[in-house]
Amino acid sequence: MRLLLVEDDAMIGEAVQSLLRGEGYAVDWVRDGRQADTALHAHQYDLVLLDLGLPGLDGLQVLRQLRARKDATPVLVATARDAVRDRIAGLDAGADDYVVKPYDMDELLARLRALARRASGRAEVQYEHEGVRLNPATREASVNGSPVVLSGREWAVLQALLARPGSTLSRQQLEDKLYGWGDEVSSNAIEVYIHGLRKKLGQGAILNVRGVGYMLPRA
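Structure tokens predicted for Response regulator:
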């Protein structure tokens, strides 16, 4: 999933970015409201994590402008503004959820997962193909009923493939699921994650389509 992190506090931003990347999110981080508005015009995101007290353009204005464009991207407001009137203002402006700083990181992840499930239109999203199962709600993965432990980026690669079994995803498409702006991407990064997944799932679990990319074999 690609997520836009809008946070002007460098310490918080670095911590949250590191956490989310460890969970397999591709994270684009901007530090003021005008940059956020530009990014939301230029790119399609799966989720937005939005601070309100921003330089340049207040977070509420960013949110209102997003909704005025009929953009339904899920938005989790994360801010130090904890008064009831501030929460009401954020929700009325179009936020899907609201968390007050300082927040617990595990709760933040749970709220993001809940927003992703809600956006999909299903209470519980699960992916299953040829004995491989992912449950994003619990972060559990299994092969033929036996649990396997995946790194955040292995999870993201596998989820992208499981979402489109039988379809070939290019290296660039997979990198777009894993990396945000400015990330240094080694030439064999995707191959490393595919190799790790094959060791855990079985060598035939993911096929290499020569010169094109990777796919899960059709059932």
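Residues 127-215 form a domain with the Arc Repressor Mutant, subunit A fold (CATH 1.10.10.10).
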